[in-house]
Amino acid sequence: MNAGPGGFRGAPVTKGLLLGTLSTSIIIQASKAVRRRPPLLVSLFTHAFAFRNPGELLFGASLLYFYRIFERQWGSAKYGSFVATTCCVAYALEAAASSGLGWRSASGPFPLVFANLLSNFVLLVPPMHQFTVFGIKMTDKSFIYLASIQLLLSAAPGSLVAGGAGLLAGLLYRLNFLGLQRLRLPTAVVDFVTNTVGRLLTGPAPAQQVFVTPTAAQLQQQQQALHQQQMQAAGGMGGEFQQLGGRQQGAASRGGGGGGAAAARVVEPSPEAVQQLVAMGFDEAAAMQALRQANNNVEAALQYLL
């Protein structure tokens, strides 16, 4: 979560979802001329991942990428459990609608997009900025809502069925229906994915600097060489310059200490600001640390946490 604002670092589940969605969507769109009926498992996989036209792919992939903020906040294990739980519920609802009412749902990860929208984005992400467009007051969240509406109507009525199933699944998850929030992926599954696909999706670890501690003999040689250079540069007037430099250095040290003490003062977070961030779902210790970094500015602290 504190890995930085951009890219996929700390979000391997989102990266895997996007890779699956982009690759299957491009393959399906490129092979539309093939009339051959694919096997059942292939049909289920493409139905879950592949958007059928470039417009759906653009808006759907953008929303999936935006929702990586929840994976960073919760961790990949919990977010992966949310993805598996809500998708299973949504696909069960889609199957019921298809068999009972004859409503066919659109292909693509519509359920996950709209489960994230209702369960997480609407309730957990506060508006940060407000502006007016043609006399209509809007917030920065409006862009996500507009993109979601465009995606919901892109392949109606199938997209309405799939999106509605996702919204209902997100609502059931948020209400903790039948203990959905307590469900977790089995430890064996998490370990297997982490040790196989997870390593490919997270990429190489950042290079670490290695510091070599010099030996006592090397330190003594360096000190002797430095002392000789100072004696040669100072010459016969070295003592006077050293005394003057010592007085200036002492004064500078005292002044620097005062400046450092002033810079070290940190604005303690107010209880109201801490409570506001805790109400959004953040840990109290992490909220206090973020508020200290942001000088008790809630908006800046929220950006730091996200």
Overall description:
- It is a single chain.
- The protein is mainly α.
- The protein folds into two domains: 12-202, no CATH class; 271-305, Helicase, Ruva Protein, domain 3 (Orthogonal Bundle), CATH 1.10.8.10.
- It is 67% helix and 3% strand.
- It contains 15 helices and two strands.
- It has helices spanning 12-30, 40-49, 54-66, 68-74, 76-101, 110-124, 142-152, 158-174, 187-195, 197-202, 216-234, 238-264, 271-279, 284-293, 298-305, and strands spanning 130-133, 136-139.
- Strands 1-2 form a two-stranded antiparallel ribbon.
- A hairpin with a 2-residue loop joins strand 1 (130-133) and strand 2 (136-139).
- Helix 13 (271-279) crosses helix 14 (284-293).
- It is extended.
- Residues 1-6, 208-213 and 255-264 have low confidence and may be disordered.
- It comes from Chlorella vulgaris (Green alga).
- GO terms for molecular function: serine-type endopeptidase activity.
- Residues 268-306 form the UBA domain.
Biggest sheet strand order reads: 1-2
Percent helix among the residues?
Answer: 55-70%
Taking all Cα atoms into account, the compactness measure Rg is 29 Å
Q: Cα distance, first to last residue?
A: 6 Å
Oligomer: single chain
List keywords for this structure.
306 residues, Helicase, Ruva Protein, domain 3, 2 domains, two-stranded antiparallel sheet, disordered N terminus
